Each structure stands twice: as structure tokens, then as C-alpha cells.
């Protein structure tokens, strides 16, 4: 049960959150101009690192805000000071 | 016969309170403070059942949770399987039986209560032996919030069973003094009989507190979030592997000592003590002093420690160094031990000598209880010095100390415990110091000699040398695994099942690593150990479930009209957490006939349905229109105030994920509806885009699902019925056309009425504030009584919408279906620059001509309904596998209006195959079905205006 730092509500139990996958995969500015391959890359390709991962969470059972944290996927250590309200996906 | 092995005095039992109990059909007596095991031993009962594979007699082997043998089934007070006799508290009226193999669950509901509690603390101390108590004292005096938990019924750990003195006084005095101080310190929580069984991320630890059979809640699960954790979990004595090491009467040496000191019980009359280390000498001395004859101390080491030798000599106890027990005799109980010298390179083989005994005490060294440390992702290393695994790395916020860290003298445990408590409190931000600790006697220690396989014991006897007593797994089994080429301890564990029983290898785990290492000819460190997983000790599911069972298992959501539905005895369908009426049976009706009647009523008269569960989201803000244009496939900005539009939402991959209606309620305001089960997901999805991708849009989203109770009034007579309960709404079709809404009064309550139809019939959706829901529902029911107004449930709603070819997202779609696949290209705007999903509609995969389309299917008119999920194939006879699949049936019902079965299905290139016949695979038959348009009823849409 991870303790996840919501930038608005403070640290809360993992069960209050919903995972949002890799952060900073921004929606392409002009999707219609992209090749099928580039669009597929946006849709389907995500990093899955062993180690530090920048990822999104939604405080679903709390303030409903989306935010970004960095987490070590091998230890689940979250770099607490680093969480911020997400402005990119 | 009661208590002939009970000492006349001593022990921490309450001799004023005798306790009667029954085991395997015999009545016995023990005392308050006994465990089932100590009470049985006091009556001379060692054997508690037979082994799981070979049916060999097995006895009590330990005095704690590491017990591999003494599994019992509790019958009274309440059936509970698979408990260890060494941890069952004796109580009056207890009825138990021995248990080879599986236990028996109760067939009747458990009358006891189970509960859960959440707690936060600065320092959690696991274990209240000398180490844990010293740690708690340091931490508690700093003002930190401290929780100290111990699995045992009372605090003290090893001190309870060793008869040791602290500061020249019985250790019990120190234990009582410390425990009292802890109890009196504010912010310290003292939890005896509480097993911390799991450590999870960020120091989330879960414990189960055994509160007793008479407590308000029998067991309570503690969910503890701790800043710092001190693991003072102690260690487990390890048995030894030798032929016949499983005979009842064979017991861990220190456990025997515990039976003497803590319970005043002699586990036998004449003992052989077999050891590889010093600790068993204390047991030999204490048992001797309590009246047990010690036949010999058999030590594999060439030299015994001087101090212990002197004490043995004083008492006339013979010590056989460089010797080992290499066999036992006896039928149901050990009656003799064979002793052989440990062979060396130059010694000749010798004939073993036999010593008579009724008790064989063994000590193969001590395993620090590193379970929680490992669960915290702490690594362990094999220490040659003590012949066991010890904590290596230190995980964040977790420190192991005392015997759990490989320190085995009481003095060192007290000192390091006190320091660990101080350090943990400091780490948590408190100015802590070490609490003073009492003096404990100590002397020089001779290093143990880790022993796995005894040299000189023939390999043939491998099937009598037990490594894991609980699993009946032997050296022969390990030899077989190694012979088959296995070298990983994880593989061998799974092949031999060693370490997979209720005790999770507490006594057998490292032992098997040692045996594997010897058979492979490598170091134990290279073999390592298997993963330590929670739970540390078995936990009852009832304790984990707590109060979350029955009606409280999951939150239930009900509508404002729910109590009315209950009066109709209708069955409910679970939609997410919602309870929705499924159908309303009349006396003698089954579901099929009820649904046909309800369908007929809506098509020919008037019906009403509670549709309050549909998700509703209020969308407000100057950019609301722009926002909705981006998330729906259709254009919502052109919708006029007062009008309603059906909308589809897709993920960026172009697949439909929700649908519903969009009402424009103002220039900058919309009310959108979602599927009943999808409301939370849609809100999260919309928030995601609004917050992260389009934060410049000024839009606010509010869930208003439970603000509005909604009643669908459907059927050709619906206008007539509604007219009777409203005077300020012009219901004329021109004034109030299809897909518009208006505010007015219905049954005296402010209402928002929509012309929406999910059945194809003339229909109104009446929204009123939630708390007026039932009143308005009853008023409408009353108003339609002479028209035979018919309440209908979700099943009828499904049939009616399927007759019209309206898909249900999540039933007729599965996340691989585009709007075009559904034949709903009309709902996809071509006038927008972009919306979620748009780009994907031109991907190579989504423009394939052989995608699955939503079509109708007609089985023969006189056939049964073809089950939903039926696979569809091309031919009337199945070809050799693999059989190409064309798709599957997504919705299937009998139609009252058509008087025949019909279905919706996703079929490859379905729209290009209308009129063709394919086959549904039902059981072992192939049923012909004709592919049709998905709209079966009123294709022209003439009925929606009444």
C-alpha cells in the first residue's frame, strides 16, 4: 500500500488513487497531419522502465486532480518533493 | 489421568483456574494460561496426529508459531481448521482434534465479529521480547507515538521460557515493570497477542489482534502506517536432519525449556539432547534441574564450552562431543536414540550405541526471523559465523535488531534494542535517548557448527530424514530434485513442496538450502533462500474480511424509488454498485413471461421505468461547448439551448467507450448523461483532458447523478398519462418535439422533462429533485392506473432498445468497436477539425473492410433464443480446426412485438452480408441465423411522436 503524495491533499493511501500511466505523453498538436506510424506511437507506445518512472495519478477518491510523480518501479519509492500538478498528460 | 507431567509449582499458568478440554475424543485438564500443546504435554500426550503423506505419527515439536507438526482442527467453540496446538490458547470447553492434511471449514455462519482499525505511529516495534521491550522503552520516553505488538499472549518473548534473571531478579519483574510503564505512557499502544504478518510499501504493516473468544470482536486487523519500524522479531530454533528425526518426543531444545519455565510441564522423563551449538545446554541443565534425567548431551562439535561443561559435570550429565544422533527407535513415541561418533578421515566406522529416552531434544542453530525484513525488500546474507541468514541491507525506515539481526545473548539484545528504539525515534524526529537496561548474565560462547547432512549416514536412509515435517519432504526428495538437474532453491521448493505448508518453512527453509548446498557441493550462501512472502503466519479470511461482508461487502447504491420497487418483490440487477429493478413479476410469472408482458405494455399502452442511475454530469463554463466538441464524436456546439443530442465518446484510439445524451441547458451549460456503470470513469476521463491537456479551457464538471431522480414514461399512452399530472407543460408534439427538454411542474414538483426515447416509442424522461423521486413516481403510477401503466425493468428496456438496434456500450461493444462498426457514422462529425478518436478513424486497421459490424440476426422463428456470447461460423458443418470465427452474438432476446427470437451481433463485414445465413455454435449444434439490418421494429421511426 503505497503512500502517494497528492499535491493538494497530502499523502494518502494508494487505494484512493487511480493510475494514469506514463506522464508527459502529450496529445499531438495536429493529429490529422501525423503518419499512421507516428499516431500509433502516440496511441500505443509507452515506456516500461526498471527504475525511475515519471507517471500520472488521479486522486479519484479525493480531490479528483491529476498529478505527476516520479517513482522507482523497483522499490516503489516516490520522490516526494517532486510531485506537481500535471500540466501535460 | 490429569497432569502427571505437571510440575508441582512454577510456570506462568494460573493454577487456581483449571480448564477442562477434549482432544481426539479424550477429556483432559489443563490450566488457564496453557496452550493446547502445553496442556496435552502435561497429560503425557506427545502425538497429535499423523503425517500428511506417509501417515507417520507426529508429535509436538515446538512451543510457538514455527510448529510444523501439531496441526489441529478446533470443533468447539467454533470450527476452525489448521491451527497449531502451540498457539491455541486453552479455554474451558475447547474441543479439538488432530488434523492430518486438510481442515474442515464451518458450514454454519461464524457468529463472532471481526473488525479492522487504522493506526498511525512514529515507531512500530514488532516483537516484545528483551529487544522489543528495550526498544519500546527508549522510543516511548521520547514522546513518539509508539505501537508495540507481539504475537504471544503476553510480553517477554524468550524471557518467558528461559527462567533467566535480569539484575539478579526473575526476568518477569522487569517485563512487568516495562509493560506497565508502556501502558501508562500516553501515545503508546500495547498490543499483545497481535501478529504483524505483512509489511507493504511505505511502511504499511498489517497485523491481526486475537482479542479472545469472549471479546466483542474476536479478531481485529490493524492497518498500521509507521514512520519507522523496529523489527525485534527474534529467531526460530532450527531442527536437525537425521534418520527418524520425526518421531513424537523429538522437540526443539529451547521449546522444551519453555514448557518447563512457562507452563511448568516436563515434556518427558529421560532426554537425549542433540546439538550443534551452546543453546541446548541451557535446556539440558534446566530440564535436569526440573527433574528430567538427561541421558547425554550429544554435541557434533569436538569441544564443548567450558562453562557448560562444568555445569553438566556438576550434575553428572555426560557430554558426548564429536558425536551425532544417527537414528531413533520407538513406535508412537521415541524410545531410544542411536549415537555415532562423527566420522573423520582417519576414524574407522563404528557401531552406534543406543541410549534409552522418551524425549529427544534437538538444536541445529538459530534462524533470525527475517520475514518482515525481507518483505520490506531488505536483502539477507548467509552468515558463516552463526550458520543462518541475517539481514544485510537496511531498507528505508526498517531496522532489524536483537536475535532478528543475529544477536543471541540477552545482554546484547537489551543493549541493541534500546539503541534501536532511540535511533528509530530520532529518525522520526524525536529527541530520544537510550533507556537504561538491566544486566543479564553472559559468558563465553563456543561458535556453533552448522550441520546439514550428517557425515557417515547412508544415503539409503534419506527417506527417513525429514527436512520439512509439515510436508513430509525428505532428504531423498531433495536428492531426487538435485538428481533431476535442479539447482535453484526456488525450483527445488516447488518440486519438493518444502516450505510451502502452513508454517511457510520457518523450521525447514534454511535447512533445505543447507541440504541442497551439500548435495550440490556448493556453499549455502550460493544456494540462498526462497522469497519470504506475507503472511508471516496464517490469517483467517474472516479477520481480513472484517465487517466487509454480507450487506457491507461493497457499498450499495439505490435510487429514490428503491423502497417502492421493494414492495413489488422485483429481482434486482447489479449495475456497478447500483441496484436496478430487473423485471416486475406478477403472481405466477417467470422472467420470460413478465418481460413479454412489460414489452407489450410499452409498445401498446404505457410503461414506466426508474432510470435515475444514468450518470449525469453538469458541464459549465464559457468553453463548455468547445470542450464537448473535443470529447464527443458529434458536434455539440451547434446544439441549441432547449435541445438534446445523442452523443458518442471515443478514446483516442477511436473505440467507443461511452454514450449518452447531451442537453444544452444554457449558453455556457450542458447536462450530459452517461451509462449507469460508466459515470465515474467518464468523469475521470473528462477531468483528465481538462486538467492536463486543455487547462486553458474554462470548464467545470460536477457529478449530479444523485441530484436528479429520473423516470422514463414510455408508450403511445405516455402523453395522456403525463398530461394528468402537469398543467404548465404544453405536451403537444409541435410545442415539445422529440429531442427537446422543458422545465415545468409534474405532480406538483418542479421537474425537467425531456423528449428522449430508448424504446422507439413516444416517451418522456421526467427529472425531479432526488427527494421527490418516489412521490412523483407514485403520482405517475396512480395517474396511469386506468391505462394499466406497467412498471418495467432493465430486461424489458434491453429488449425494447435491441428491437430498435440501439447498442449498449459494454454489451454490444467491447473496446474494439468504432462508431462506424456500430453503423453510427451519422454520429461522427465531419465538420470538426479534431476530436478524440478522429485521427484513428483513418488508421489502416479501422478502415479495413472486414471489420466486425453490428448487425441483426434472425434465428428460425420457432427456435429458442440463441445465447448471448454464441460464436458465429460460416458453414452448417464445422470444418477441421482451427475454425474461422466470424464474430459473436452480443444481445439476444425474444420479441413480443415480432413474436420471435432475435439478436444483435458483431459479424465480420456484417453490413455487406445482409440476407445471408451463417451459423451459431450452441452446445454441439449449429443454429442457422440470417443476417439483417440491426433495426427490427418501426424502421421509419413513426412511433416516437405518438
UniProtKB/TrEMBL annotation, chain A:
Gene Ontology BP term (one): tetrahydrofolate metabolic process
Enzyme class, spelled out: oxidoreductase
Gene3D superfamilies: Folate-binding superfamily
Oxidoreductase listed as a keyword: yes
GO MF entries: sarcosine oxidase activity
Pfam families: SoxD
Keyword Oxidoreductase: yes
Protein name: Sarcosine oxidase subunit alpha/sarcosine oxidase subunit delta
Lineage of the organism: Bacteria, Bacillati, Actinomycetota, Actinomycetes, Pseudonocardiales
TrEMBL record, chain B:
Sorted UniProt keywords: Cytoplasm, NAD, Nucleotide-binding, Oxidoreductase
Range of residues in the leader sequence: none
Domain FAD/NAD(P)-binding: start-end pairs: 122-375
EC number: 1.5.3.24
Top-level EC class as recorded in UniProt: oxidoreductase
Main location (coarse class): cytoplasm
One protein family per Pfam: GCV_T
Cofactor binding, note field: Binds 1 NAD(+) per subunit.
Catalyzed chemical reaction(s): sarcosine + (6S)-5,6,7,8-tetrahydrofolate + O2 = (6R)-5,10-methylene-5,6,7,8-tetrahydrofolate + glycine + H2O2
Domain spans labelled Aminomethyltransferase C-terminal: 852-938
Location of the GCVT N-terminal domain: 561-832
Domain SoxA A3 per the UniProt entry, residue ranges: 464-547
This protein's record includes keyword Cell membrane: no
Cofactor(s) listed in the protein's UniProt record: NAD(+)
Keyword Nucleotide-binding found: yes
Subcellular location: Cytoplasm
SUPFAM superfamilies, alphabetized: Aminomethyltransferase beta-barrel domain, FAD/NAD(P)-binding domain, Folate-binding domain
Similarity field: Belongs to the GcvT family.
Name of this chain's protein: Sarcosine oxidase subunit alpha
Organism: Prauserella salsuginis
Amino acid at each position: 500500500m503505497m503512500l502517494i503524495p497528492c499535491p493538494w491533499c497530502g499523502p494518502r493511501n494508494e487505494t484512493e488513487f487511480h493510475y494514469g500511466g506514463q506522464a508527459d505523453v502529450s496529445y499531438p498538436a495536429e493529429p490529422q497531419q501525423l503518419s499512421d506510424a507516428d499516431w500509433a506511437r502516440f496511441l500505443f507506445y509507452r515506456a516500461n522502465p526498471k527504475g525511475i518512472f515519471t507517471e500520472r495519478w488521479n486522486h479519484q477518491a479525493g480531490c479528483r486532480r491529476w498529478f505527476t510523480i516520479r517513482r522507482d518501479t523497483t522499490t516503489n519509492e516516490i520522490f516526494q518533493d517532486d510531485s506537481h500538478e500535471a500540466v501535460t498528460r | 489421568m490429569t497432569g502427571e507431567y505437571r510440575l508441582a509449582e512454577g510456570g506462568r499458568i494460573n493454577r487456581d483456574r483449571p480448564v477442562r478440554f477434549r482432544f481426539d475424543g479424550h477429556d483432559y485438564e489443563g490450566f488457564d494460561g496453557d496452550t493446547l500443546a502445553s496442556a496435552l504435554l502435561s497429560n503425557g500426550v506427545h502425538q497429535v496426529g499423523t503425517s500428511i503423506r506417509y501417515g507417520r505419527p507426529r508429535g509436538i515439536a515446538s512451543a510457538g508459531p514455527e510448529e510444523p507438526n501439531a496441526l489441529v482442527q478446533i470443533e468447539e467453540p467454533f470450527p476452525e481448521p489448521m491451527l497449531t496446538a502451540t498457539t491455541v490458547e486453552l479455554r474451558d470447553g475447547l474441543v479439538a482434534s488432530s488434523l492430518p492434511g486438510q481442515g474442515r471449514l464451518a458450514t454454519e455462519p461464524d457468529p463472532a465479529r471481526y473488525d479492522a482499525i487504522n493506526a498511525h505511529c512514529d515507531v512500530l516495534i514488532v516483537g516484545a521480547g528483551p529487544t522489543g521491550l528495550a526498544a519500546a522503552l527508549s522510543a516511548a520516553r521520547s514522546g513518539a507515538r509508539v505501537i508495540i505488538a507481539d504475537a504471544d499472549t503476553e510480553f517477554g518473548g524468550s524471557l518467558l521460557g528461559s527462567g533467566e534473571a535480569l539484575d539478579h531478579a526473575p526476568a518477569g519483574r522487569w517485563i512487568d515493570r516495562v509493560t506497565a510503564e508502556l501502558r501508562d505512557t500516553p501515545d503508546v499502544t500495547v498490543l499483545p497477542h497481535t501478529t504483524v504478518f505483512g509489511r507493504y510499501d511505505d511502511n504499511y504493516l498489517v497485523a491481526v489482534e486475537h482479542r479472545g473468544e469472549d471479546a466483542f470482536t474476536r479478531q481485529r486487523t490493524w492497518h498500521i502506517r509507521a514512520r519507522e519500524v523496529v523489527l525485534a522479531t527474534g529467531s526460530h530454533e532450527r531442527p536437525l536432519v537425521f534418520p527418524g528425526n520425526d518421531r513424537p518426543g523429538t522437540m526443539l531444545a529451547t521449546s522444551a525449556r519453555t514448557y518447563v519455565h512457562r507452563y511448568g510441564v516436563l515434556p518427558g522423563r529421560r532426554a537425549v539432547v542433540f546439538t550443534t551449538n551452546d543453546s541446548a545446554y541451557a535446556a539440558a541443565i534446566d530440564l535436569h534441574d526440573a527433574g528430567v534425567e538427561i541421558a547425554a548431551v550429544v554435541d557434533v562439535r569436538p569441544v564443548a564450552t567450558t562453562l557448560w561443561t562444568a555445569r553438566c559435570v556438576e550434575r553428572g550429565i555426560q557430554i558426548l562431543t564429536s558425536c551425532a544422533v544417527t537414528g531413533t527407535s520407538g513406535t508412537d513415541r521415541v524410545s531410544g536414540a542411536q549415537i555415532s561418533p562423527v566420522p573423520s578421515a582417519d576414524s574407522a566406522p563404528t557401531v552406534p550405541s543406543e541410549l534409552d529416552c522418551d524425549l529427544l531434544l534437538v538444536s541445529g542453530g538459530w534462524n533470525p526471523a527475517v520475514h518482515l525484513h525481507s518483505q520490506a525488500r531488505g536483502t539477507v546474507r548467509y552468515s558463516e559465523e552463526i550458520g543462518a541468514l541475517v539481514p544485510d541491507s537496511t531498507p528505508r525506515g526498517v531496522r532489524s535488531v536483537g536475535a532478528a539481526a543475529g544477536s543471541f545473548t540477552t545482554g546484547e539484545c537489551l543493549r541493541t534494542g534500546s539503541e534501536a528504539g532511540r535511533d528509530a525515534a530520532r529518525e522520526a524526529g524525536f529527541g530520544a535517548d537510550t533507556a537504561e537496561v538491566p544486566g543479564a548474565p553472559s559468558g563465553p560462547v563456543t561458535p556453533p557448527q552448522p550441520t546439514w547432512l550428517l557425515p557417515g549416514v547412508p544415503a539409503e536412509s534419506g527417506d527417513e530424514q525429514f527436512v520439512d515435517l509439515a510436508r513430509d519432504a525428505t532428504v531423498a526428495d531433495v536428492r531426487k530434485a538435485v538428481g533431476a538437474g535442479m539447482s535453484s532453491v526456488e525450483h527445488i521448493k516447488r518440486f519438493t513442496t518444502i516450505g510451502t505448508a502452513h508454517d511457510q518453512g520457518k523450521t525447514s527453509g534454511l535447512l533445505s538450502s543447507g541440504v541442497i548446498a551439500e548435495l550440490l557441493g556448493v556453499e549455502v550462501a550460493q544456494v540462498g533462500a526462497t522469497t519470504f512472502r506475507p503472511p508471516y503466519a496464517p490469517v483467517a479470511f474472516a479477520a481480513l474480511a472484517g465487517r466487509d461482508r454480507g450487506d457491507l461487502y461493497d457499498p450499495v447504491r439505490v435510487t429514490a424509488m428503491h423502497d417502492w420497487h421493494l414492495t413489488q418483490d422485483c429481482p434486482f440487477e447489479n449495475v456497478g454498485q447500483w441496484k436496478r429493478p430487473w423485471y416486475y413479476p406478477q403472481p405466477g410469472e417467470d422472467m420470460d413471461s413478465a418481460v413479454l408482458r412489460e414489452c407489450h405494455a410499452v409498445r401498446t399502452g404505457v410503461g414506466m421505468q426508474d432510470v435515475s442511475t444514468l450518470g449525469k454530469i453538469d458541464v459549465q463554463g464559457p468553453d463548455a461547448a468547445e470542450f464537448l466538441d473535443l470529447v464527443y464524436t458529434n458536434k455539440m456546439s451547434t446544439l441549441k439551448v432547449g435541445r438534446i443530442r445523442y452523443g458518442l465518446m471515443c478514446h483516442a484510439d477511436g473505440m467507443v467507450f461511452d454514450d449518452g445524451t447531451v442537453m444544452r441547458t444554457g449558453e455556457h451549460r450542458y447536462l450530459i448523461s452517461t451509462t449507469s456503470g460508466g459515470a465515474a470513469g467518464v468523469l475521470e476521463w473528462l477531468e483528465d483532458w481538462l486538467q492536463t491537456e486543455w487547462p486553458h479551457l474554462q470548464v467545470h464538471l460536477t457529478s449530479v447523478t444523485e441530484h436528479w431522480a429520473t423516470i422514463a414514461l414510455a408508450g403511445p399512452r405516455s402523453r395522456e398519462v403525463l398530461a394528468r399530472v402537469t398543467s404548465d407543460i404544453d405536451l403537444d408534439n409541435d410545442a415539445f418535439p422529440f429531442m427537446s427538454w422543458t422545465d415545468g411542474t409534474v405532480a406538483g414538483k418542479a421537474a425537467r422533462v425531456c423528449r428522449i426515447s430508448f424504446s422507439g416509442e413516444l416517451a418522456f424522461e421526467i427529472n425531479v429533485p432526488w427527494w421527490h423521486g418516489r412521490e412523483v413516481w407514485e403520482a405517475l403510477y396512480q395517474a396511469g392506473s386506468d391505462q394499466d401503466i406497467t412498471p418495467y425493468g432493465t430486461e424489458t428496456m434491453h429488449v425494447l432498445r435491441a428491437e430498435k438496434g440501439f447498442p449498449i456500450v459494454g454489451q454490444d461493444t467491447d473496446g474494439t468497436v468504432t462508431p462506424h462498426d456500430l453503423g453510427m457514422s451519422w454520429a461522427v462529425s465531419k465538420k470538426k477539425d479534431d476530436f478524440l478518436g478522429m485521427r484513428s478513424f483513418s488508421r489502416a486497421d479501422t478502415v479495413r473492410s472486414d471489420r466486425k459490424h453490428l448487425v441483426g440476426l434472425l434465428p428460425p422463428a420457432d427456435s429458442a433464443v440463441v445465447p448471448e456470447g454464441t460464436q458465429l461460423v460460416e458453414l452448417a458443418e464445422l470444418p477441421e480446426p482451427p475454425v474461422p470465427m466470424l464474430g459473436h452474438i452480443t444481445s439476444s432476446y425474444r420479441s413480443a412485438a415480432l413474436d420471435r427470437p432475435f439478436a444483435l451481433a458483431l459479424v465480420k463485414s456484417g453490413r455487406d452480408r445482409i440476407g445471408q445465413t451463417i451459423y451459431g455454435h450452441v452446445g454441439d449444434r449449429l443454429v442457422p441465423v440470417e443476417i439483417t439490418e440491426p433495426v427490427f421494429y418501426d424502421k421509419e421511426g413513426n412511433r416516437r411522436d405518438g
